[in-house]
Amino acid sequence: MSAVLIPALGALLVLFVDALAGSGAKARTTTRASALSGIRLGVIAVLSLLAVLLMLPGGAGVASSGGLSIDAFAAVGITLIVALCFLVLALSLTHFGMARSRPGEPIALWLFSLSGFLAALASENLLVLLLCLELAWLPPLALVAIDSRRLSSSESSIKLFFAHALASLIFAHGVAFLFLATGRLDFELLAGATVVRPLLFEIGTALLIVGLVARCAIAPFHPFTPDVHEGAPAFVTAHMATAAQTACFLVLLRLLHAILPADPALASELARRLPGLLGFLACLTLVWGHAMALIQVGLRRLVGWLAVGQVGFLTLALVDARGPGAEALVGALLATGIAIVGVLTTLSSLSHHERACEHVGDLAGMSSQSPARATLLALFLLSLAGFPGTMGFVARRDVLTAVEHSGHRGWLLAGVVATVLALTAVGRPLVAMLYPSEGRRDASRALSNEQVVLVVCGLVVLFLGMAPLFGERTLSGWLTRWIAEGVASLRT
Amino acid sequence: MNFQFDHILLVVVALPASVALLLVAIGLAQGFTGLPQLPERVWKAAGLAVGFATFAISLFGIALPFDPETLGYQFVATLGGTLSHEPRLLLGVDGIGLCFLLSTAGLAPLAILSSRAETEESVRSWIFVVLMLESSLLGAITSLNLYGFLFFWAQSLLPILHWLGRWGGEGRARIATRVWATESVGLAGLLFVVFVLSEMSDAQLGQASLDLVRPISESGGTLLDLRIGLADQRMLFAILTVALVTRLPLVPLHFWLPQAHASSPTGLSILLATGFVQTAAIGLLRFALPLFPEAAFEARPFLATIGIAALAYASLVALVQKELKRLLAYTSVGYAGFAMFGIATMNDQGLTGAVVQLLTHGLATAGLFMLIGALAKRRGTTEVVAFGGLARPMPVCAAFFGLMVFSLMGFPLLGGFIGDLFVLLGSLDLSRELAIAALASMGIAASYLLWVQRRVFFGPVDEPANRGLIDLDRIERAMLLTVAIPILLIGVYPNPLLRRIEPAVLEILHQMGRASLPIDTPASASAGPSPGRLAPGEPG
Lengths: 492, 540
What we know:
The structure holds two protein chains of two kinds. Chain A is an all-alpha fold. Chain A has helices at 6-20, 25-29, 31-55, 72-99, 104-122, 126-144, 151-182, 187-190, 198-215, 224-231, 234-258, 264-294, 299-318, 325-349, 366-369, 371-385, 391-405, 409-434, 448-466, 475-491; strands at residues 63-65, 68-70. Chain A has a two-stranded antiparallel sheet. In chain A, α3 (31-55) packs antiparallel against α4 (72-99), α11 packs parallel to α13 and α16 crosses α19. The longest helix of chain A has 32 residues, at 151-182. Chain A is globular. Chain B starts with 7 loop residues before the first helix and ends in a 15-residue tail after the last helix. Chain A binds chain B through residues 367, 372, 386-389, 396-397, 400-401, 403-405, 409, 412-413, 416-417, 419-420, 423-424, 427-428, 430-435, 468-474, and chain B through 1-2, 28, 79-83, 86-89, 147, 150-151, 153-155, 161-162, 165-166, 172-173, 176-177, 180-181, 184-185, 187-189, 191-192, 194-196, 198-199, 202, 208.
C-alpha cells in the first residue's frame, strides 16, 4: 500500500475510535471527555503523519503501487506538506478546545483531505489524479462550514463548493480531450506522445491547466480565498494555505513537465504559449491580490488577499518551470505556508472565546500588551511581503531571479511593483500594533499549542531568512540541495 | 560560517544591534521567570556605553590606522559562505565611507543623550531603536555587496517605523504609513536592481556575485566586471537613483521628511539627517555611478537641474515655515538637492564637495536639532513666533546656533564653506548657468537661515516666558562642542579630510572611466576594465 493512503486509514481509525468513545450526553459535553477524546484522536493523526514520513522511499528510489508512484519529487512535496501539517494539527487544538465540540469528524475529514492531496502528488495517471483531487477537495467543503454559528462560514463553504465544481468540470474535460488526442492518460506516456489530433491536444492541455489554475486560486479563480480566510476556522484556512496550495502547485509543475508532445512544432508552440499565459495570470493575481489587500479593513480578509498575492508570486515561478523556477516554487511554497500559518496562529491566539481581533484597528496596543506576539506577527507579515532578512525575501528573490533568468523583465517589474503594494499593505497592521490600546481589554493569552506553533514558525522564518549568510554547509544548504534533487527527478 | 575576528568592521556594525537584542532577550527572560525588569537607567547606561564604545572602536580601530595613501577599500571583512554565488555580507571602507562611519557612530550616543527629556516615558524603546538604527546605518555605509546594502537599508526602516508608529505624537499613524510607503518604493527599486544584476552576473561571470570587490583570498569577477548595455544601464540607473533619492530625500520624493522630523525626538531627527541621508549618498557613489557609468554621465544635466530645483524649491518652502523642526527639515531637503548637484558634476571637485557638504551639513543640522530640542525642552514649543530675543537670556545657545547656521550658509572658515566651494568649482565644468542658479538658490537658503536666526535670537524679548530662560547646561554644551569642533576643524584645516576623500573619489571616477589613477594598486586592479563598461557592440 502506498504511504500516501495512510492518513486515509488514520481517518477511518479516528472515526472508529470516536464511535467507540460513546455518544452519550456526558461524552459530548464534558470538557474532560472532549480533551481525552481529542488527545486520543490527535495521537492517531500524528502517528499517521509519522508513518507517511517513515514509509517514503529514500534518495532517488521510487515506490509504486496502484497508479500511485512516489519518486524523489513527490517525496519532497509529501515531506513538505506533512511537516506543515504538524503545525496545522497543533493549531487545530485551539479550535477543538474553544468550540468544545468532538474533534472526531473534523480530524477524520482533515486526514481524508490530506490523503487526497498526498495521493495527487504521487499520481502517475490523469484519471487517478482527478479522483485524488476530488478526495482532497470534498472534505474541506464541510470543514470550512464547520463553524455553524457564523454565517460567513457557510457562505465561504458555498463559494468554495462552486469553485471546486468549476475546477473539477474543467479538469475532467481536459482529461477527456487529452485522451481523445493521444489515447493515453499516464504521465510517463504523455511525455513524447504522438498527437493524433493537435487541436484536441491543445484544448485538452489548456483545460487541464486551467482546471489546476482554478484549484490553485490563481486569478480570476481566486474569489473564494478571502472568504475562506474570513469564514473558516484558522486550522482549516491553514490546511488550505499549506496542503492544498502546495499539492496543487506541485501537481501543476509536474504536469508542465509531463505534457510534451513528440511533434517538435507542437511542443515549441506549447513551450512558447504556456509561460505567456502563466505570466499574465501571475501578474493579474499579484496586482489584484496586493491592491485589494491595501483597502481591507478586516484582518482576516487582509491576510486572505495577501495570500492571493502570494499565489501570484508562486505562479510567477511557473513561468520558468523548466528552469530554476521549479526550485524557487518549492521554496516559495514553504515560505508562504509557514508565514500564513504563523499569521493565522497569532490571530487565533488573539481571538479566544469571543472573536475580538477582527479588524486592523483591533491590533492596537498589541506591541505593549504582548510584545512577543506583536514581534512575531510583524515577522510573519514582513515575510509575506518579502522583506529582506525573512524567509519570504529569500523565496521572493529566488522566484524573481528565475523570472529574470527566463528573460521576462516585464514580469519582474510587475513582481517588484507587487512588492511595493505588499509592503504598503502590511504597513497598516504593523503601524496599528504600535497604537496605544486606549482602554481596550488585554489581549488573550496564547495557548501552549499556539505558542509552540508560533515559536517554530518564527524560528523557521528567521533562520531560513538569514540562512544565506551562513553558507551551504548548514541546514538551509541541505534543504536547498534536497529540493534541487527532487526537482531534478522531475526533469529526468 | 566564515568569520575572521580581525575583521573589526563586523564588530563595529554588529555591536549596537547585539547589545540591543541582548537587552531585549534579558527582558523577555525576566518576563518569563517573573523577575523584575532591568531598570531604565541600566538600559540608558548600556545604550550610551555601547554608543561611545562603537565610536571609540571606529576612531581608534579604523580611522587612525586607515591609510589615506592606499587606494580602494580597507578593513575588508566578510560574513557568510565562502562560495561567491551565495549572498553574503562584505564590509569595507574607503575615505568616503570612513567619514560617514565616524559621523554616524559619533552622533548615535549624542542622539541618545539629546533626547533624555523627550523619551522619558519610553526609555527602553528609545535605546532599542537607536542601537538597531545605528547598526543598520553603519552596515549600509560599509557594505561592499549590493545584497548586504539592501539588507541593511531595509533593516534601518524598522526602528524608524517602530518609533514613529508608537511614539510619533499626533497623526503618527499617517506619518508612519507615509514613511513606510515611500521607503517601500525605494526598497522595491533596490530589489529590482539586485535581481537584474544578480542574473547578469550569473550569465557573464558564472556566479551570481553582487560584490564590488573581491577579497584577496578569493578569485572571480565582481559587479564592476559586468558589461552592461546602454539601454540596461539607463533603466537600472534610473530605477536605482529613484530608489536611493527616496531617502536622500530629493524633491519630489521628500514629502515624508518634514512630518517625520516634526514627529521625532531630537535624537531620531539627528540620525535621520545624517546617517539615513548618508546611506543614500553611499548608494549613489558606491553603486549607481560606477556600475552604470555611461547612463550616469548622460543623466548629468538632468540630475544637476533636479538638484538645483530642489534647493530652490525647498528654500522657498522653508521661508514660509512657522515651526523650527519643519524649517530645518526643508533645509535638509534643499541641501540634499545641493549634494545631488555636486554628485551630478561627476568630476573630482564636485564629488569631493558633495561628500564634504553631506558630512558638514549633517553635523550642522545635528547641532541645530540639538539646539531646537533644548529650546523645546525649555519652552515646550518649537513655533518660531514663540521665540525672540533669546540671545540675551541664552547667549551660548545663540552662539552655537549662529555657528551652525553660518556653516550651513557656507561661511568661510567653517565646514560648510569647503563643501559648497568644491561643489561650485566642480559645477563650472558642467554648466556655468547651473552654477549661477545654484548660487542664487543658496542665496535664498541663506536668507531664510538668517531670518530665522534673527527672529529667534535677536530683537526685543516680547514673550515674558522667554525672559527667564536658562542657557544650555554642561551636557548640552559638551554635545554641541562635539559637533562644533569638527565643523571648525574642517573649515580651518580641511586637508586631513580631503586627503581621505579624494582618493576614494578618484577611484569612483576611475571606475566610471572618467579619471586615471596615480598609482596602480591591487584594489584598483580589481576594479574592472575601464574606461566604461558597455556591452560589446554597444554605441558609447
